[in-house]
Fold each of these.
Amino acid sequence: MHFIARPLVASVARRAITLSARDAAAQPSARFLATAATGATTFTTVQVPMGKESVTLHSIWLRDHCRCPACWHPVTKQRLVETQTIPKDLAATDVKQTDAQVQITWKDGHVSTFDKAWLKDHAYGKTAQFKDLEETYEPALWGSEIAQNPPSVPYDEVMDPSNAGLRKWLENIAIHGFSFVKGVPASVEKSKELVARITFIRESHYGGYWDFTPNLEHGDTAYTSLALPAHTDTTYFTDPVGLQMFHLLEHRGTGGESLLVDGFKVAAELRRLHPDAYVTLSTTKVAAHCAGDADTYIYPKPRYHALLNHDERGKLVQIRYNNNDRSVLNHLSFDQVAAYYDALQKWQAIAHERKDLEYWFPLGPGTVVIFDNWRVMHARAAFTGYRRLTGCYVNGDDWRSRLRTVAGVNRKMC
C-alpha cells in the first residue's frame, strides 16, 4: 500500500468569487448599500463588492466578524463585540473596495475593513456547507503490510528543540494513527519527558503516568496476564482519551506481544462488505461503563454512543469499541437488538479474525509506541512472568493542537 506522507488541504466547495487586480481605486459604490429585509426577522443585508462581482451578506454577520482591534483581539484571536448589541436593521452608509480590501462604514459610524481573501474563504451562500480551510492530513489506511515499514522517529530527533522531529512524530500519528519512537532511555522520567514534548498527561482513575505489573491493582483485565482483544480505551468516558503511549521497561517471561489494528481500515472493509451493518453501527447507540474498582463507577453523559462516529460532513472521525466494557443492552427495540448483534458480529469478524489487518510486534525497553485511540485498536497476547509496563493518556484536542502549532497551520477558522 502506498502511504500518503504529505499534508493535504481538504477540498472545499466554494462559490466562485472572482477577484480583480485591476480594480485598484477606492471608490464609494451606492449600489452596494442595499438594506433588504430577510423575512420576518428583518435582518438587513449588504452587497459586498469583490472586484467585478459581489456577494450579498447579512449586516449583522459582517459587523459580528469585524476584524478591527475594538471588535476582535489581534493577539488572543477572540471576539470583543457583544453580538446582542448589533441592531437587526443595521445599515451601511458607504462601501469601498481596493484591490485587496473592502471597507464598510456603518450608520453608527463604525468602520469595518475586510481582506477580500478572507471574505472569499468565509462568505456563505444560500446552501449551508461545512468548511475546513486549514491544513489537514489524509489518513493512510493499513493492514499487516505496515510491518515492512512502520512509522518511526528517533528519540533524539523528537527531543530536539527545532521541533522537526516532534512534527514528524505527530504527522505519523495523524496519517497512520500511530508511531514508534526508538532509542528512548528505559526510565519513567525520560518517558514522561518524551510525552511532555506533545502536551500534558491526562489524569484518570488509573492515575497519571502508569507504572504497573499484572497485580490487579485496578479492576480491569489490563492489570492481568490475560490476552486482550482489539479495542479502544475509555469508551466509558464522555470524551475518550486521544492518544495512548506504552513503554515496556521489563519483561521476564514469554508472550505479551502487542497488536495494533487500524480501526478506520476495519470500518472501510465493513462498509465495502456489509453497508447495512456500517449504517447500523453508525446510528445505533449503546452504553459503556467502568465499575471494577470499589470507588469508581464511570459512564458517559450522554449515556449512549455509536461505535462509528462521523463529523458534520459524514467523515469517520472516531471508533468507540470495547466489547468488554459495553453495558447491558436494555434500551433497544426487538428488531434493533437483532440488527445490532448482526452488525456487531460482522464488525468483530473483520476486526478480530482478519490476519491481513493485524500488525503484531514485541515491545521492549527503549521503544515507545503511541497511537490515536480514536482510530487504532490495540490488543495484547497472554504472557507469563514479570512484566512491567508504563504509559499514559493524552487528550485528543491537545495533541491535535500541538500538531497544528508545530506545523505552522494558518489559523483561518478563528
Amino acid sequence: MPPSPSTIPADVVRCVVQFLLCRKDLYSCTLVNHIFCDVSIPVLYRTLDIRIPIVKRSESRIQVLHPFDTILQKPSYGKYVRKILQCARHFSTERLEALRLCHNLRSFSWTDNCSLGDTDTVFCVYLDILQDIGINELHVKVSSGISSCMWTRLMRFHGISSLGVTSSQLPASDLDAWSARVGSALTMLDFSISSEAARYPQCKSSTSLFLRHMIHLRSLRLDAPTSSIPDILCYLPHLTTLDVRYRTLGQTTMPLTQPLARLQHLTIHVIQDGGVGLGDWILALAPHHNSLHSLTIHNRAPQGNATVPPNFMQRLAQLHGHSLRQLFLYNLALGSDGVRVLFTAFGRLDALSFIPLVPNLVRRPESCSSRPQADHRTPFIASHIGRRAFRMQPEDAHDPIFPRHPVK
C-alpha cells in the first residue's frame, strides 16, 4: 500500500519540490496538505514571471491573476521572492506596494514592447524601489528605444553586479563616466544597442574606453565593431565568457598585443559575408593554449550555409584540442578533413553539432533507422562513440539541436 502524503517527511518533500519546474505542478503541491504547502510556497514564489498573465476561466467570467495581488493579501510571501520578470503592460500603481514587500529580491527584469514610449515614468518609479531594496541583477529590454529620462535614471543606479541593456537606440551620453562609476562592481554585462553598432565603426576607440573601467567583468555580451573586440579583451583580464557579433566590412586587423582574457566560453554570431576571415579572428580572441571549453558559431549571414575552412579545425585543435568540450556550428558545413580532425584531435569533446558536407559520413544507428528522413542526401545522423555524443544537422535546419548557452 503506497504511503499517504501526510506521512512523508518535510525534508523528503523539499528535495522533490526543488526539481519541479512547472508552476502548475508547484501550485498543485500547495493543495495536498499543510506540509506540501509550507514546502512548495517558497519555491512557487521564488521567481515571478509577470510578462505572461495568468488567466482563470470560470462559467461566469474570466479573471486575470497577478502574483502581486496575492502578495498584497499575504505579505509574508514577499520574503520568498528572489527574481521578478516584469512587463510594462501589466502595471498598476497599487501593485508597487507588493514590490516593496519583496525585501530579498535579487534580480529584476523589465520588458517594454510598447511603441509609444509612455512608460518611462513608471520604470523610474520601479528603479527607485529597486535601489532601496538593493538588487544584484538588473535587465532592461525596451523595443522603442531608451529615452533620455530613463537612461539618466539608469546611470544613477549603483550596487549591481549584473546589468543587461537591450534596445534599438540609446541617448548620446558620457558612457565612459558611467562605466567609471559602476564598473568596479560589474561582473556581467549585456549591452546590445542596435544604433550603437552602426555608430561604433566611426568611433572604434570609444568602445575600448567604455569598458576599460570594468576590469572585474567575467561575462560580456556586446554588439560592437569586429576590429575592436580583440582590443577590448586587453582591458578585461578576468573575462571568461564572451558573446559577440562578427561583421566583415573590410580587412579585419589583428591585435598587436595578446589579449589578457583567457576565454572559456565563446559565442560568435556571423552577420555578414559568411565568415570571411572568421577563423583567424577567433584564434586571435582565444590565443592561450587549452583555455577554451566551448565554442559556438551561429551563421546568420543572408548567404545561407557556409563552409568551415579546412585548416581552421587543425589550428583550433593545436590550441585547444585538450580543453574544448563543446563545439556547436549552426548553419556551418564541415568537410571530411574537418570531421577527421574532430574525431582524432579533440580528446575531451563531449557535444558537437554541425552540417556534414559528405552524406552518410557517419552511419545511422540501428535504433534510429525507423526515424523519418527529411532529406535522403543529408539525413539527420546521431552517433554515440564511447561516452561522447555527436549530432549533425540537416542542411535546412534552423533551430539549434543543443542549448544556445554552454553548459557550465
Amino acid sequence: MTTTGAADWRPWGPRPVIAPGTRSSLARGSALSVAGLVAQGALRFLTAWLVGTIAGREWVGQVATAISIATFLSLLWPTSAGAAMSRFVARALGAGDVDGARSLARFVTATAVVAAGVGAAVAVPAWRVIGDGTLAEGLIVALLVVALGGYGLVRGSLFALGRVERAAASDVLTSVVGLGGLAALLAAGARGVTLTVPLVVANLLYVGLNWPAGTRHAAAQGPPRREVTTFIALTTVGTLASTGFLQLSQVVVRTTGDAHEAGGYAAALTLATPASLLVTALSLVLLPTLAEALGRGDRPAFLSQTDAAMRGIATVMVGALGTLAVLARVLVAVVWGRDYTEVADLLPVLSLAILVTTLGVASVSALNIESQRGVVTTTVASVSGMLVGILVWVVAAPEGGTVAVAAGYLAGVTVLAGIPVVVVMRRHGQRWSRLLLTVAGAVLVAGAAVLVERRSGWGPWLDVALAAAFAAGWFAVQRRDVRRVAGAFRGTA
C-alpha cells in the first residue's frame, strides 16, 4: 500500500510514492529535520557515552573507529545518491515530470545498491587491517556500511518528496529501537564492534519502512542520466573529502596512536559534532527547496534562501560552538569524567573546525544545485582541503598526537569551506563580508576566554560565567540577523 498527496507521517503507514506533494516551509522543514537528526544524534552520542562510561575508553575508541570506517565507505556513492534524489527527483517533480522523477529514482536506487555491496566487501579487509579485528567483526562493519548507505539514500528520497514529517518520525522510532538494543547488549556484557549492531538494526529498519514505491514499473528510459551520474560521482569525491575527512581523522588517530588515544578523540568529537545537526538538517531541506526554486525559474528566491541560510547558520553555530569551546573543561568533566581530562584541550580546536565546516554549507548547497560547474567547484575545494589536512597530519601527527590531528582537520576544512563561500560571494553577489568579519571577531573573543581560563587557575565557575557572557554578547550583536532570518524562513514556501 502506498500514499501520495496528504502524506502519512507515520513510519508504519503506507510507503511513500514518487509523486508531487505538499512541501513544508523552509522553517518548518528545518525544525522537523532537526527533530529527526536530534534523535539520530542522540543514538550516536549515547552509543559513544554508554560504551565509554560502561565498557571503558579503549572500547569506545574501537567502536568509534568501526563506525568511522563504515561511514567513510558508505560515502562511496550511496550517500551521494541520496543527494541526487533530493536534487533531481525534486526538480523533476517541481517541473511536473512525474514519470521522469520515477525513472530517475529507479536508476539512482539501482546504482546505490550496487555501490553499497562493493563498500561492504571492502569493509571486511579494511577493518581487519585498521582495527586489527576478527572476520566476524568485519562482517558487522560490512552490514553497517549497507545500513548507513541505505539510510542516506532513503532519507534523500523522503526529502525530495517533501516528506519531512515522516523522515523525522522514522528517525525517532528507529533511534529508540537502537538505544534499546544497545542497552540490552551492554547489560549482557557485550563489548567491541558487537555494540554497533543496534546501529545496523536501526538504520535497516529506517530503510525498510521508507523504501520509495512507484518505481518498479517506471520507464527504463527517462531523462538524460549523464548529468545524474556525473553529479553523484563529483559529489561522492567532494563528500569523501569533506564528511569523509572527519571520519578519516578518527582513523588516523587510531593508526598513529592506540585505542586509548582513539577513545579520547572520539570523546571530543562526540561533544563537538552534535551542534552541527542543525546545519545538517537545514541542508537536507535546503537542497530540494533550492532545486525547486531553480526548476520554476525563481532566481530571486534561490538567492534569498541561500543568504538566509548562511546568516542563520552563522548566528546559531557561532553562539553554540563558541559557548561549547569556552565550556570545554566543564563539559568534559561532567560528561566523560576524570579519565578524559586532556579531551578539554581538543574540544576548542574541534569546535572551531566544525564551525568553519558549517559556514560553508549554504554556499556548497547553492553551488551544487545551480550547475555542474558549481559541483566541480565544491569538489575541487573539498579535495584541496583534504590534501592540506593530510599534509599537516604527515608532518605533525606522528609527534603531535591527537592535537595535531585536530589541527590538521581544522586547516583542511578552512580551505574546503572557504573556497565555496568566496565563490558564491563573487558569483551571486552575496554581501557576507561584514558577517564574516563579525564571526572572526567572535572566534577571537572565544579563544581569548579559553586562554584566560587556562592561565587563571580558577575553578569551573569562571568557565560558566565566561560562556554565559559570550553567548549573551553574541546574540545581542546578531539580533538584527536573528529577526531577518526568522522573517525570511517564515516567508519561504
Amino acid sequence: MLCTAMLPALSRYLLGRMDASAKDFLIAKGSIVLLVAGCFGLFLAASAAGMIISLVLFTLGTGLP
C-alpha cells in the first residue's frame, strides 16, 4: 500500500509545489525520520500496542526513493 498508493500520491502532490530534487530530498528525510522513530519505538515497546504502532512507523519509513 505504501509503495503503490501513498508514495506516488505524496510525490505527485509535492512535485506541484517544488522541483524534483527537492521533492526527493524531502521524501528521503521524512522516510529516514519515520524509520528511526520506528526502530526506537520497537526498542522501547513495553506492550503489544506500542509494538504495533512502532511497526507501522517503521513500515512507513521504508519508502526511501
